[in-house]
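Escalated from tier 1: zinc ion holo job.
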Amino acid sequence: MAGNTEPLPSRAKLAVTAGKAAAAVSRAAGRGSGSVIGGKVALRLDPDLLRRLAQHLDVILVSATNGKTTTTRLIAEALRAAGPVVSNALGANMPAGITSALAGGSDAQFGVIEVDEKYLAGVARDTTPKAIALLNLSRDQLDRAAETRMLAEKWREGLAGTKAVVIANADDPLIVWAASSSPNVVWVAAGQEWKDDAWSCPSCGGVMQRPGDDWFCAQCGFRRPAPSWALRDDHVLDPHGSAWPIHLQLPGRANKANAATSAAVAATFGVPPGVALQRMYQVQAVAGRYDVVSFQGRDLRLLLAKNPAGWLETFSLIDPPPTPVILSVNARGADGTDTSWLWDVDYTRLSGHPIFVLGDRKLDLAVRLEVAGLTFRVCETLDEAVQYAPPGRIEVIANYTAFQDLRRRVGN
Amino acid sequence: MSDSSLRLVWIYPDLLSTYGDQGNALVVERRARQRRLNVSRVDVRSDQPVPTSGDIYLVGGGEDRPQRLAAERLRRDGGLNRAVSNGAIVFSVCAGYQILGHEFVNDLGEREQGLGLLDVVSTRGEGERCVGDVLGDIDPQLNLPPLTGFENHQGITHLGPSARPLARVRLGRGNGTGDGTEGAFNDTVFGTYMHGPVMARNPHIADLLLKLALDVNALPPVDDRWYDALRNERINAAVQPA
Ligand SMILES: [Zn+2]
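Tier 2 regenerated the structure:
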């Protein structure tokens, strides 16, 4: 039921107006886009607002540990072929941010919404989505996040019997476990390089067997479902076996996987894969990620990697040696204050690259690289690292707040 | 064991490797190689038998259900207990530490039998999780510099008479018993709540395990520049939180 067929009740209208005013004040005070504070004010006036706003939209939810912001952008771009879209494109992915984003799109037909993993079940309840895209689940911010398997369990309970079409990654056992309580699932063979959170069967605890691309539990029979969509190198295979070329400005295998999932989502709303994939080419940098910026006469590509699975995917997309690499790691609140995840990342993959180390936790990283047997230089500032980096484009990989620090420094 | 080769066994990476625990194996391995020791590392998955011929065994931390599964499989296997009776050295962290004790509380809220390799009993704390930097003094018998680590656990571990606390905390919670103890050890078996991982911040513990395994009093020095810098930074951060 798309389009604004029924008007919002007056309390909801007031809430939307109050929220917009608060957002404007927040913006004027220089506190970012104001979308979160606007949403918080609006939700306080009308806790039912998210549900009301969603009522008028075909809602698509996107959740994952990695790639949800990018995939939300790709799906939004693809669905614009079918009608106007409202989306929380800036990554404000908790209920307040989502409410605020939806309140800004009164003429939209589709609401494409990125949802923080912890809020997925609740937001799915409030927004009655038509489709839910589930990409991957892996360890992230261990000092405060729920256990990864528990999160899959919560999704499974929250999505049981959902009316939405669930578009889910058949190559991630935790995602398959979470999605398989849903009656209508479209499986996408989207790949998953990181395997270390699913060696233990999410169903029975048995040891997972993983021959080649397949996986199964010998103990209970939980196994990889047969996918109807697949990522195959630079192509998306649709359920009819047709191969559609992927042309993205975004780099890396993980983004091709995101494009494959997005094409499957778009198809459920009648957008053919060829059209969807062509539109996805429009997406360049996403909130500064993958952006190539010029700084001190050098080209820097800014890459965000927040957890071991994200670092692994990032290593696979950077230019080969001798391309210099700058790494920056912080451990502030938004990053998680525990740096032990550094030891889950295989830094030997950077062998041959000149490496420069920055950030609040550069010494943790220095010990990590020393133990990996790599040579590196610890720097105080980005400027210093760039100054010592040998010629060529520089790959800059940083975790969350370190990434924000870098963006500020390069004026991006 | 021969003086030219050292067998390092990492127990159940499929279940007990949640908090960068592989780091302890990497640090021990690296520091052994820097001393020109021949090291072989064996990673034992929980559907494989635990070899009894290892010199140093490392057991990491894990989430609640994997912890129970690991305890069940290690009890059934019996290899780790046999290795210890052969004189092997074991170093365990968090969930692994609890498993080495007499019992702990599992994910179902029941008391689960451990391996009885350390004279400790663990329960689950009612209060907030212990999360943050820790600073402590290691038992003088071990003759090591101060302990710096990061803790993130809900467990409480009580020591029996034949276990000594690994350290006394100056900052942080450690065993969570309120008496300032952290970790436990006997002759060859060690347990701690510290990850970070603990060896990255306390390479002397890795060296201690190597010395015990080789039965030597000293090892050739290695370049500890980055470890020392990290230790100083983390100790200062614990003393004066930002
Ligand atoms: Zn199973």
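Chain B has seven helices and 14 strands.
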